[in-house]
Amino acid sequence: MPYHHAANKLTPGLPMRHSMSSHRITQEGGHGVQIEPFEIFAIRYAHLGNRHPGENFITSDPHEFASDLDYFVWVLRRSDRTFVVDTGFTKEEAAKRRREWIRCPAESLRLLDLDAAAVTDVILTHLHYDHAGNLDRFPRARFHLQDREIAYATGRSMCHHELRAAFTLESTLEMVRLIYAERAIFHDADAEVAPGLTLHRVGGHSAGLQIARVWTRRGWVVVASDASHLYANFERRRPFPVVYNVAEMLEGFDLLYKLADSRDHIVPGHDPLVMTYYPAPKPELEGIVVRLDVSPCRRK
Questions:
Q1: d(CA 213, CA 226)
Q2: Is residue 194 part of a domain?
Q3: What residues contact 165, with CB distance under 8 A and at least 6 apart?
Q4: What residue numbers bound the domain in which 274 lies?
Q5: pTM of this prediction?
Q6: Average pLDDT value for residue range 62-69
Q7: pLDDT tens, 31-45?
């Protein structure tokens, strides 16, 4: 069966509310339905240190602290469905871009008893090198992405080095091959891909960047990916300098707050603090994997 069509479109104007005691989601004007919550895991696979403040914020003070970056892939899991969010980069790409490559993102799924070769659904938040490598490691997967992202990654904007620098030709070509193999699911703006899981185009950092809003046992959590690299980007409204559209990035910060149940339900895409705020699912995974469907322990 070909998978080239978009998933269910969301109905505008029907916000979803919830009751924590029963894991019940209610659309305004409708009836409550029981939705099994997802578990969410972040797997840390790479690191980049020794950064200048100007590499994290468009407007920066050279005397202020500059956060390192961690690189993650995410897993959304419940009894009936599992989604992998992003696929990371390869060891070769890490060496080329001088990143500290800690572990293979695809192989790291085994830490959660998952096999990349058996994964059926991958959500690509966007097609930058650190989010859309290793596509060949998922031979059974369908890949969810935004119409705007593939158009951007293969269109006239790539004539400019400054815009194509965050992409790799090999990964983009592999995504085109997957489209021809009828293994791509395209979304136009907002879409429900499963009960309790919706995707929302933000743009900003990349033209078709999308975020995931996920129903969990603690409510609606937003996996922000690069809509906000760091907590400081969205909390202080300071845009990250790798950007396609600054206005969209700023509006994306507003969308994060709108979709998440609270500030503590927003998970940025590259902040090392994620590994500090959230617990490991078991002691032997400390510093490698954290659970995001439990409440964080963070500063006030």
A1: 14
A2: yes
A3: none
A4: 8-291
A5: 0.90
A6: 72
A7: 567 899 999 999 999
Q: What's at 36, amino acid-wise?
A: E
* Residue 111 pLDDT exceeds 80: yes
Task: Say if 240 falls within a structural domain.
Answer: yes
Task: Confirm whether 39 is domain-assigned.
Answer: yes
**Cα 123 to Cα 184: distance, rounded to the nearest angstrom:** 10
**232-259: average pLDDT:** 95
For residue range 83-98, list pLDDT tens digits in order.
Answer: 999 999 999 999 999 9
Domain CATH for 96 = 3.60.15.10
Q: What's the confidence (pLDDT) of residue 33?
A: 77
d(C-alpha 142, C-alpha 145), whole Å: 10
**Cβ within 8 Å of residue 191, ≥6 positions away:** 6, 7, 8, 9, 10, 198, 199
Is 67 part of a structural domain of the chain? yes
Whether the Cβ atoms of residue 289 and residue 70 lie closer than 8 Å to each other: no
Number of domain units in the chain: 1
pLDDT at 1: 35
Nearest Cα to Cα of residue 125 among 57, 213, 39? 213
Look at residue 263 and tell me whether its pLDDT is greater than 90. yes
